[in-house]
């Protein structure tokens, strides 16, 4: 907690506010506590923290200066300038997010099988409609935190998803406006951020590295490297992560930061660009009370810096309740309370269910709601009472009009340094302009590649296991097929070697399935709010995979080519290496595409193994192309194994001067192969007389070209086979991109 504010004295008071203390000392925390009756203070945005940081000459000066600005109360001049402002300016809220009559329902198919009189079951299905949100309304103001509460299944996460544009527009009824104007999806992606309930982070990156990569994604290229580092350092202090900055995130197999620190890192990567609206789905889930309080305290700082913070929370503690500004209680999609926590006792008092004096207000409300849900009439009476109570409150207090237009409010925020990811300020016409992405695609590719390489470099066992599988397979093949001769048996052994070698290259690519599946939700979170383009991700992942594929292909080719005794010399080895590399490329691309379609690792492995088995079956090894039935010939041309297999066969047997069957060797694969050579020579003489050809023991009967014809390999040259294999790899990468484009919308239907 050394990075947070120190203890504060309650002697400072806000003028014109009944002399109420603005802050009071919390004995269990080193942080200032806001009085429930006080108005929210305006904290410096992250951009303002950096305005006085001149290229960060040294880390100590930068950190100290950022800390001083992060807490205006630590500087007397900052505090005096704030307290000298009129109360109306302090309490102004240029941004108001309003949502009215939000309704969302889903259709559920339920299967029932009633037994008939004859004992047979019916397979009829019934379609039921479940209402997840039913006319939910409310508003959230800049500088405040709104919490959505309720039991499990009450609709908390659904409401957050609706406000965060994570529900398809045609499925959600109602309106969502910002300062009275409809909030378009394209603008919302720029001005808002969404923090998922699960902490989706790269396990082998440190806290500082994770935030720095987020800064490189979300902050524009116009901001210097030093400014980005200074922003990250200020954010680390704001999140209270200074002691864990150099610690890796960790996972089940690697010790890392604590649960509360992970949650704050998850928040940090989404607020690096200082968004106007921040959505969080149960940020305190799974945390102890102290960690949960620290997370909400961080969110309070973010809200006070000029943001709207909206979160769902299951059951806040008494201390957390003291930090919240607005509450919405939901019960099975209906609003049963909305307003300030201060008015909660009055609400239930008027509902004839007063909250006992020493009772936790939140626990009492949730217990009462659950009790009503289990009753015969449900919460209908409470829902109707809330509507009447809200109408009365609105009449007594009057409507809180927002006189600041959305354009003016966004322009003012940009001037203060918010929305640094893609917003620019055009003060001449007060019209802010937005870039869809903060950086060009080539910058995104570099950052994605650098992050992936760094994360992989700290997990060398992944590449080591794949290299081990390739090398073990290569050594087994090299020792099994050592120095094959140019005999009919040698031909059959070569065919078997090539078929097994080519199929193995594809099977070893199956390890790529978990790679994207582990990153899937990180990718969806980052691309949902335009951290980078999907095309940048696909291109970057494709490029950074090539060096490892070259290394694997070279290792396999060097292990097997000369040991097996393949022909062609140096040029033959080069083509064999390129074919293995192209096979790795096509196989890796195919598996990557499947990982974008299949969301389960075990299912992915099953599908890959099955499809690759079919590819091998139709490759032409087990049955030549000429003998494949016409109704299956299309699968032969779709087989990924076909093209590298035919390519290496042509590389081996294309020499017309190389003979593989001579004279008496024609009897080797027949029952006559067991008779003495003298008998075979006599048979050759007899055959020569019948055929009119002089056949001796050294007469070449079958060349490599003849073998290719026997295998039905005559329609595509070896280089075309190579290019087709490479093209398959690019084709599956393009399919992977469209899979991400279509399947990663991360929206409910």
How would you explain this protein's 3D organization?
By secondary structure, the chain is of the alpha/beta class. Among the domains are: 279 residues, 3-Layer(aba) Sandwich (Rossmann fold); 227 residues. Helix content is 50%, strand content 12%. It is built from 27 helices and 16 strands. The chain starts with 22 loop residues before the first strand and ends in a 6-residue tail after the last helix.
The H-level CATH homologous superfamily of the domain at 96-106 and 128-395, spelled out, is P-loop containing nucleotide triphosphate hydrolases
Strand order of the largest sheet: 8-9-10-5-11-12
**Radius of gyration, taken over Cα atoms and rounded to an integer in Å:** 35 Å
Q: Can you tell me the CATH class of the domain at 96-106 and 128-395? A: Alpha Beta
| Spatial shape | elongated
> Average pLDDT, to the nearest integer?
79
CATH architecture of the domain at 96-106 and 128-395: 3-Layer(aba) Sandwich
Strand content: 5-15%
Number of helices: 27
Low-confidence stretches: 1-42, 46-92, 115-122, 423-432
């Amino acid at each position: 907690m050394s990075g947070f504010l120190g203890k504060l004295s309650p002697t400072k008071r806000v003028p014109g506010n009944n002399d109420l203390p603005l802050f009071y000392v919390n004995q269990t925390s080193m942080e200032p506590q806001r009085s429930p009756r006080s108005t929210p203070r305006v904290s410096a945005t992250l951009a303002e923290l950096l305005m006085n940081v001149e290229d960060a000459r040294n880390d100590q000066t930068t950190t100290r200066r950022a800390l001083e600005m992060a807490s205006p109360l630590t500087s007397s001049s900052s505090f005096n300038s704030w307290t000298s402002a009129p109360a109306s300016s302090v309490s102004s809220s240029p941004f108001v997010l309003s949502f009215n009559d939000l309704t969302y329902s889903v259709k559920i198919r339920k299967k029932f099988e009633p037994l008939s009189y004859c004992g047979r079951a019916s397979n009829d299905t019934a379609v039921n409609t479940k209402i997840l949100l039913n006319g939910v309304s409310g508003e959230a103001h800049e500088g405040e935190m709104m919490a959505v509460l309720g039991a499990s299944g009450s609709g908390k996460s659904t409401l957050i998803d609706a406000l965060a544009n994570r529900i398809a527009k045609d499925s959600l009824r109602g309106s969502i406006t910002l300062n009275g104007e409809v909030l378009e999806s394209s603008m919302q992606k720029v001005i808002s951020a969404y923090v998922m309930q699960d902490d989706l982070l790269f396990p082998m990156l440190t806290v500082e590295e994770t935030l720095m990569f987020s800064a490189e994604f979300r902050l524009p290229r116009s901001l210097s490297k030093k400014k980005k580092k200074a922003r990250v350092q200020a954010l680390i202090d704001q999140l209270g992560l200074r002691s864990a900055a150099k610690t890796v995130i960790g996972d089940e197999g690697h010790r890392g930061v604590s649960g509360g620190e992970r949650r704050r890192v998850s928040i940090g990567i989404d607020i690096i660009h200082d968004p106007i609206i921040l959505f969080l789905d149960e940020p305190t889930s799974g945390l102890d009370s102290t960690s949960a309080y620290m997370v909400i305290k961080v969110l309070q700082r973010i809200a006070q810096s000029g943001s709207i913070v909206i979160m769902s929370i299951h059951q806040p503690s008494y201390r957390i309740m003291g930090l919240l500004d607005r509450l919405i209680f939901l019960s099975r999609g209906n609003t049963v309370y909305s307003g300030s926590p201060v008015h909660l006792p009055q609400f239930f008092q008027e509902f004839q269910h007063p909250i006992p004096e020493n009772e936790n207000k939140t626990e009492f409300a949730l217990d009462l709601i659950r009790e009503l849900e289990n009753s015969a009439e449900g919460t209908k009476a409470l829902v109707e009472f809330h509507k009447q109570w809200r109408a009365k409150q609105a009449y007594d207090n009057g409507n809180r009009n927002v006189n600041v237009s959305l354009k003016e409010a966004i322009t003012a925020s940009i001037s203060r340094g918010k929305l640094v990811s893609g917003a620019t300020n055009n003060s001449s016409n007060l019209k802010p302009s937005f870039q869809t992405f903060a950086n060009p695609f080539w910058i995104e590719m570099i950052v994605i590649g650098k992050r992936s390489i760094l994360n992989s470099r700290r997990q060398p066992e992944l590449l080591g296991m794949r290299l081990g599988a390739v090398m073990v397979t290569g050594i087994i093949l090299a020792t099994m097929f050592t120095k094959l001769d140019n005999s009919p048996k040698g031909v059959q052994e070569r065919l078997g070697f090539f078929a097994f070698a080519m199929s193995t290259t594809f099977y070893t690519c199956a390890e790529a399935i978990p790679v994207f599946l582990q990153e899937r939700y990180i990718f969806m979170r980052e691309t949902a709010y335009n951290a980078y383009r999907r095309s940048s991700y696909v291109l970057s992942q494709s490029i950074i995979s090539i060096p490892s594929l070259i290394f694997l292909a070279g290792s396999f080719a060097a292990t097997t080519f000369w040991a097996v005794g393949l022909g062609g010399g140096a040029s033959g080895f080069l083509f064999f290496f390129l074919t293995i590399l192209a096979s790795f490329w096509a196989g890796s691309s195919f598996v990557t595409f499947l990982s974008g379609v299949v969301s389960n690792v075990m299912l992915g492995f099953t599908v890959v193994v099955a499809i690759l088995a079919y590819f091998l079956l139709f490759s032409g090894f087990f049955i030549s192309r000429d003998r494949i039935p016409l109704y299956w010939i299309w699968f032969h041309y779709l087989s990924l194994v076909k093209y590298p297999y035919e390519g290496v066969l042509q590389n081996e047997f294309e020499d017309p001067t190389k003979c593989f069957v001579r004279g008496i060797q024609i009897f080797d694969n027949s029952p006559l192969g067991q008779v003495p050579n003298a008998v075979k020579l006599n048979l050759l003489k007899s055959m020569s007389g019948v055929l009119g050809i002089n056949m001796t023991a050294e007469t070449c009967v079958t060349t490599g070209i003849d073998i290719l014809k026997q295998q039905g390999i005559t329609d595509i040259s070896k280089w075309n086979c190579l290019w087709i294999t490479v093209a398959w790899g690019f084709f599956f990468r393009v399919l992977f991109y469209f899979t991400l484009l279509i399947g990663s919308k991360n929206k409910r239907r």
